[in-house]
Amino acid sequence: MDINDYLIETRRYFHRNPELSFKEYKTAGKIEEELKSMGLRPERITETGIIADIINDKNKKTVAIRADIDALPVTEENDVDYRSLNDGIMHACGHDTHITMLLGAAKMIINDLKNFNGNVRLIFQPAEESPPGGAIEMIKNGALENVDYIIGQHIWGSLDAGKIGIYYHEMMANADQFNIKIHGKGGHGSAPHEAIDTIYISSHLINMLNNIISREIDPQEPAVLTVGKINAGYRYNVIAAHSELSGTVRTFSRDVQEKIKKRIGEILEGLKMIYNINYEYDYEYGYPVLVNNENISKIIEETASSILGNENIVHPKPNMGGEDFAYYLEKVPGAYYVLGGAFPGKHIGNHSPLFNIDESVLYNGALILKESARNILLKNP
Amino acid sequence: MDINDYLIETRRYFHRNPELSFKEYKTAGKIEEELKSMGLRPERITETGIIADIINDKNKKTVAIRADIDALPVTEENDVDYRSLNDGIMHACGHDTHITMLLGAAKMIINDLKNFNGNVRLIFQPAEESPPGGAIEMIKNGALENVDYIIGQHIWGSLDAGKIGIYYHEMMANADQFNIKIHGKGGHGSAPHEAIDTIYISSHLINMLNNIISREIDPQEPAVLTVGKINAGYRYNVIAAHSELSGTVRTFSRDVQEKIKKRIGEILEGLKMIYNINYEYDYEYGYPVLVNNENISKIIEETASSILGNENIVHPKPNMGGEDFAYYLEKVPGAYYVLGGAFPGKHIGNHSPLFNIDESVLYNGALILKESARNILLKNP
Amino acid sequence: MDINDYLIETRRYFHRNPELSFKEYKTAGKIEEELKSMGLRPERITETGIIADIINDKNKKTVAIRADIDALPVTEENDVDYRSLNDGIMHACGHDTHITMLLGAAKMIINDLKNFNGNVRLIFQPAEESPPGGAIEMIKNGALENVDYIIGQHIWGSLDAGKIGIYYHEMMANADQFNIKIHGKGGHGSAPHEAIDTIYISSHLINMLNNIISREIDPQEPAVLTVGKINAGYRYNVIAAHSELSGTVRTFSRDVQEKIKKRIGEILEGLKMIYNINYEYDYEYGYPVLVNNENISKIIEETASSILGNENIVHPKPNMGGEDFAYYLEKVPGAYYVLGGAFPGKHIGNHSPLFNIDESVLYNGALILKESARNILLKNP
Amino acid sequence: MDINDYLIETRRYFHRNPELSFKEYKTAGKIEEELKSMGLRPERITETGIIADIINDKNKKTVAIRADIDALPVTEENDVDYRSLNDGIMHACGHDTHITMLLGAAKMIINDLKNFNGNVRLIFQPAEESPPGGAIEMIKNGALENVDYIIGQHIWGSLDAGKIGIYYHEMMANADQFNIKIHGKGGHGSAPHEAIDTIYISSHLINMLNNIISREIDPQEPAVLTVGKINAGYRYNVIAAHSELSGTVRTFSRDVQEKIKKRIGEILEGLKMIYNINYEYDYEYGYPVLVNNENISKIIEETASSILGNENIVHPKPNMGGEDFAYYLEKVPGAYYVLGGAFPGKHIGNHSPLFNIDESVLYNGALILKESARNILLKNP
């Protein structure tokens, strides 16, 4: 089969069969099958995490390439024939393409192995979407043993297909989660004065939370607070005794991170005083800031420039998203970058129920992975 | 078995086995069983609705007594040994006691039938909690045929056990439902500027809805708007593309009802303009205003006074709740009233997950039903 | 001069020359002049308050008629040739017509005095608009000495000219004032994170205050809370260190009044905790509930019916406004009522900068005052 | 007199006598007097704007040093004996020190003129605080004629005395003003349903405006929106028919600037639809982004380092404030920087009613101005 057909067919397979974080059983099985068909010996080092080595010369250095493999609890709204078959689950962050491009790169590397001044390790990691994430356990179980450098590539819904985004230093933010439960007093919807209405109180809370960013954080410090989920109430005419909210906080600085954490608590304490509620509040630190190695980023940039043309290299501002690729970069030098996946003029952000990509980018994505690995080994013998 | 033991045991049986509106199959079966054991011939006139006649003299008048039999989608939070066995369903409005007191009254009437100047019809009606409600179909299928008067009694969590509340005219409000869906644009929680965040927008909506009552309705016109339920978002770090809210509107006047309906729509239209959302909005008219017959109310008051003592009669203000008993009163004269069920000093409103009642009121509740029916027939031969 | 011309000319004089509460010097002088020209002997019993007696038979009873004479700090927006000459002051509550109709009634009474079974006292009272109001001091200084009954009439912008509104019992609410100062921390508008922005915090406060009414007060209890004034900030680009708000609370029940007073304090205390502000809060009890005497109200209704036709008598719901006429009614039986002043289909509420009246009502207004006084004396000899 | 005593005395004189933008008559007079006493010939080129040249060799280059001279409409809250004598006006931005340090630098330059490889122009500019500002007219009237370089220094309340902050490129933001008037419908405070309450509506507006920044602007793009002033309502019990707000928007990018301008309008349009208000909205573009010349900035840094020590040089992030010094930099190369003025550990931001500075910095401030000018002329002959 033509490599392009292989990439598209493989991507659609994974797109149809998304699995949630830490539950990528079918996905991992399929990856192993593919790797074996290439003659590799995949090793399952966590329940759904796989590594596989492509060895040229054991005495030389090794570059790892990592793909994350999990999907999101999003209900797909795309009307395509390879639509998700698993209700409420979707590869809305494009990890289906990550798996695919790493499998494609593996094929290309095997074919060109004689030109590699070293070795390549493939890392298929579960659960990037769900902190604490899959990276920590992968590393603990040896994913980086004998690895000298690491690279990773993320498909990007708000960058045109054909373009690539390179970052020299910081790329991704601290990405934390908070969970809040408000306990009021239920009652009949017709008698609000006898109840404590947690939906009404949540409306003040959401508003005050959003304004932390606009009124209380230095405008020079990028920071985001998003309430992503709220569930409250049983029924239209029963006052909601309980309200549950969860959200995310993104920052690049420890001070700002701590200030927001503290302010959420103070707002809840004030609302408790005003409305006589009780509450539970926990704040979970997520992935740390992701910091690229400048040297490796530059090699990737040169490689991509030779494939896509210099006019297609962009240098975006750091992104407020979190990534557990940050943990690998705390251990070995490397770089993470983004590959444009958007149909021209039709940017749809990752995580949207309408996220989709121009499949023509899969080939170059795989090629950039392969060539970047080759160039890193050449330049850092 | 002692009648008191019967009442408590029966009430606990129904409390343990709550069923949602229109699905009261087990409940209806148990009611039929009980009625048959008293020698009556229950007739299933709707899928889960039952009538049964206690005939003394077919040439004389008939008083109907109605009990509603459905439970609510509330998760019980009472720690009692007769706690609901059906997860997420609870007799949080006390209809378990309504069934019980009507069964108890039936026993008492049968025993004292010779003193009745007429006949009694028992009406066990499904789905009071779920508009359009069970009353309309019961009436259509003959529940009021040959009925001259009707009475109904509601257990009340915010009135002390031992007291009774009588209303001469209006007692319950127009009780409507509204449902709103907001459609924004999903995306990654770290990039709010690329999405349209329906949770944030809902916080403005809820706030503006609540203020309709305080800023736009004549303060002399009792009116309530409650958002009872909101669900939005999949996940803490994905911006919620969709938000669903539902709530209730209570009014005593058609003008106010129509104004609120219109204002909800205008607020949504303005938020659409501001935030570029789409929305769906429907407004369902619920039960109409419930209007008692003054004469019947006075007979019930005298009856209750002789049983509970005059000091235990109260005349509450009309209630903002809705009741499909209103439909019966549009056909035949009658009255609805409330029976105190609260443990002293521990008022917990109906519909709360902590709703419970002092079971010692069951006996007098049944007795007042029976004696009121007897007195109505005596005074209106 | 024709009485109608007199009424219109007199009204326009007072409309052109409005004076604020307790400062009605020119107004009082003009009233005295008019009274003297009728042969009466006005007596200045407070700095700007006047009484004048029309005596028929000292041994018989006396009815007092009271007009309030002060204007409001409102900038008139009417484009009429008798527009207020005093910038920022306007007879936006129609007291210009009250003075005028009482002067007109005085002329009519004098002409018809032989038909009066007693005497009439004219009371021109300052400062109705500004609690503690002028009534208390007028009463202290003898305004009600030897007075047996009292009546008062208010022009009404939301009732058609030609109609009259009668109340048998409660007519006006408790009318209280609250004042709030919020102290934050100023700073440069470009650095909100270094300041405490009292304008932003006030936006939450106003919102929470308005929602007290919609979420925390029994919908059956009429209640209003209005923030009527806010001033904060020096300059567009300096963060406002201080914010001052004032408003009014209207209730018919002591419990509701006290609950709102307490809740305002609790909201401020919670906002202090959340935003680290300081605040000052005072709550001033205003005029008490105004309660009419049913007998006197009925005499006025019969009188008005004979003049305006029975179809023009309405019985409005009690009004949420406050009135220091309430103090007179605490001393002697009497009644207060409203006279429609609106151009057909063009209702503009009292206190609006666009408030104006159909001057054709002045004649009947004066006549109803005169005839009501006459009838009260006849029926209560 | 000792130069230090001169600096402190002069600063306190200007602090006591602050004048608002474009009205710096007394201030300008005093400056002229001081310059003349040094033997210079001040030239009044705008109503209150002055230039004065210190000539060494007309054939050589000229460095301009600019001080802004106006004060703010802030009521001073400092309890010092040199407190502002002009009620409601204060040198809360420290321009009193700017004038003083430029006068001090002039004295130093005159004394050391033989060591200057060129000439110095002193620019005392009015109205920095009040866009369109004084710079445009000063430039139009010749302030930069024959000027080759320009420098400016701002005292800084949030930087310790003894430190200096240098910026190589962008330093200050676009600083715009917006003004909003909302027109509703007045009425009596007790009848909100008959009025359109602009205070309540403003509370929603302020909230929505603040959230533009947190929800709609790329978190990587520094942006601020502050409502600095609101005035609404005449009186506590009259519903406010009109509300006036003004505020500032700060951005570093044209796109963000235009988006915020547009969003304010859309929010107003939506609120008009919801609440039936009318509004006026104008958006005034203020000072443009201030961009330093890297070369000149480095000379100032070296100069300051030799005076304060290298450990006292900081490189702050660009500031969100606006500065009309930006206009000079559009014409000639130069640099603007900040001089720490804070008492240790007691940072109070510029524009606060409590703003004050450690006067011991005045000497080094003057010296750095003088030496920087000298070094610029030496290195750019």
Automatic annotation (TrEMBL), chains A, B, C, D:
Keywords: Carboxypeptidase, Hydrolase, Manganese, Metal-binding, Protease. The keyword Manganese applies. Its EC number is 3.5.1.14. Mn(2+) binds at C93, H95, E129, H154, H351. The Mn(2+) ion enhances activity. Its cofactor is Mn(2+). It holds the Pfam family Peptidase_M20. It is an enzyme of class 3 (hydrolase). GO terms for molecular function: aminoacylase activity; carboxypeptidase activity; metal ion binding. InterPro entries: Amidohydrolase (IPR017439), Bact_exopeptidase_dim_dom (IPR036264), Peptidase_M20 (IPR002933), Peptidase_M20_dimer (IPR011650). Residues 175-269 form the Peptidase M20 dimerisation domain. Belongs to the peptidase M20 family. Can release basic, acidic, aromatic, and, to a lesser extent, aliphatic amino acids. This is Amidohydrolase. It comes from Picrophilus torridus (strain ATCC 700027 / DSM 9790 / JCM 10055 / NBRC 100828 / KAW 2/3).
